[in-house]
Design brief:
The protein has 376 residues and is α+β, with helices and mostly antiparallel strands. The protein has three domains: 5-108 and 120-152, no CATH class; 161-272, Sandwich (Immunoglobulin-like), CATH 2.60.40; 285-374, Immunoglobulin-like, CATH 2.60.40. 49% of the residues lie in helices and 17% in strands. It has helices at residues 5-34, 36-51, 54-73, 78-107, 121-153, 265-276, 285-296, 299-302, 336-344, 346-349, 362-374, and strands spanning 161-168, 171-176, 185-188, 190-194, 199-205, 210-214, 218-223, 229-233, 239-244, 257-263, 326-327, 332-333. The strands form four sheets. A five-stranded mixed beta sheet has the order 3-2-1-5-8, with no helix packed on it. Helix 1 (5-34) packs antiparallel against helix 4, helix 2 (36-51) runs parallel beside helix 4 and helix 7 crosses helix 11. The chain starts with a helix and ends with a helix. The mean pLDDT is 84. The structure holds heme C and copper (II) ion.
Length: 376
């Protein structure tokens, strides 16, 4: 039986219009919810839809997964909800397009050539609209980006807090500089910064190229071995901002998160004061035994605990590891169970990581975890 292709095409066009309508509704909704930053994301989804390519929808899908991941660690607030909404809408839209494409492939009849050579106004209008909308959005984003870059470039840097951030496979080392050498301290994977005070970050890489990216605070900036880059920014509101290494840097690139905790100056000062102190000496017998285990096994070759003979420099400083939200650069919650699992076999959790498995007797492992738990 010969199916008349024209009504089928009209039907498809109608469905495409519905999808486009959905995309624009998402944009409008997200604008209301979370402002300019998020329009960019929604715009990407609609541009992908307008172009209706399968590979662009795959990108939208992965973008939605990334956006979803970004909501994983931030406190539950309006922004987290908006991000999640975007992730879901990206996902739904991309899903729709993919299903539609497969459906079209399966039900494709003879190619319809009857319209070839006809001058169709409707597709031309759709394409013109798509191009114009994309161009308008891109121009808006370029202008916004220039304005923000300029504002950042003119940020007054008197009284700035200087932090040296070094990228390693696959964790971040942060050294807080100070005019007084005794006040310099090192930490890993989590930056605390005071709200309202400019931050000057000096970026370096130890092994391969990494990229600093905390979307809420600054655009991407690469960390290149042998070179030093400097960026400046300021957090104007308190909050926990998740950053991500944005340059593929090896197997565990995706598990290289950086948390930036912006807090009122007094809270920052008390955090910094605590961070400058040496590790507390363990008081409990179990933790004391744990310290012995730490110092006598290989741990001390790679890790530093200030106040003990452990001063390895190849791995995150553990002096105050218990005060971090996560371990493994965002990979795991920081609690005794995950800590024990990490020490016993980090390769299972973060395959390829530069920390070997440790087959410790379970009493030793327990003592070690108790000791690390005291390092507040
Ligand atoms: C060969 C070097 C090496 C040895 C030995 C080593 N580690 Fe590690 N460790 C690392 C590296 C590298 C990381 C960072 C891994 C990552 O997140 O990519 C790490 C991460 C950690 C973390 C998570 C820190 C954080 O803030 O994310 C803990 C806790 C830890 N190690 C404990 C130990 C203990 C306890 C031992 C001894 C039983 C030990 N390590 C032995 C290299 C080492
Ligand atoms: Cu990296």
């Amino acid at each position: 039986m010969q199916i008349d292709p024209v009504p089928a095409r009209l039907e498809r066009r109608r469905r495409q219009r519905v999808a486009l309508g959905l995309a624009w509704a998402t944009i409008a909704w997200n604008t209301v919810e979370a402002g300019v930053a998020i329009v960019a994301g929604a715009a990407a989804s609609s541009i992908a839809l307008v172009s209706f390519g399968l590979d662009s929808t795959v990108e939208v899908l992965s973008a939605s997964v990334i956006v979803w991941q970004m909501t994983r660690d931030v406190p539950e607030d309006r922004e987290a909800r908006a991000l999640r909404l975007i992730a879901v809408s990206f996902f739904a839209l991309a899903g729709y397009v993919n299903v539609q494409a497969v459906f079209d492939l399966l039900t494709a009849s003879e190619p319809d050539t009857s319209m070839l050579g006809n001058d169709e106004a409707a597709p031309r209008r759709a394409v013109t609209f798509g191009v114009a909308a994309s161009a308008a959005l891109l121009i808006t984003l370029v202008v916004t980006s220039i304005v923000i870059e300029r504002a950042l470039a003119q940020l007054p840097l008197r009284d700035a807090l200087h932090i040296r951030l070094t990228g390693h496979q696959w964790w971040w080392e942060a050294t807080y500089d100070d005019a007084k050498p005794a006040n310099v301290f090192t930490t890993a994977n989590e930056l605390h910064i005071p709200v309202g005070r400019p931050i000057v970050l000096t970026l370096e890489a130890e092994d391969v190229i990494h990229s600093f990216w905390v979307p809420n605070l600054h655009g991407k900036k690469d960390l290149i071995p042998g070179r030093t880059a400097t960026i400046a920014f300021r957090a104007d509101a308190a909050g926990t901002f998740r950053g991500q290494c944005a340059e593929f840097c090896g197997y565990q690139h995706a598990n290289m998160a950086l948390m930036v905790i912006a807090e009122p100056p007094e809270r920052y000062e008390s955090w910094a004061a605590a961070a400058r102190t040496s590790a507390p000496q363990p008081l409990e017998p179990l933790a004391q035994r744990g310290q012995q285990v730490f110092l006598q096994s290989t741990c001390a070759m790679c890790h530093t605990i200030v106040g003990t003979p452990a001063n390895g420099r190849r791995a995150p400083d553990l002096t105050h590891v218990a005060s971090r939200l996560r371990i493994g650069a965002g990979t795991l919650h920081n609690d005794p169970v995950t800590l024990a699992a990490w020490i016993a076999d980090p390769q299972r959790i973060k395959p390829g990581v530069h920390m070997p498995a440790h087959a410790l007797p379970s009493a030793d492992l327990q003592a070690l975890v108790a000791y690390l738990g005291t390092l507040k």
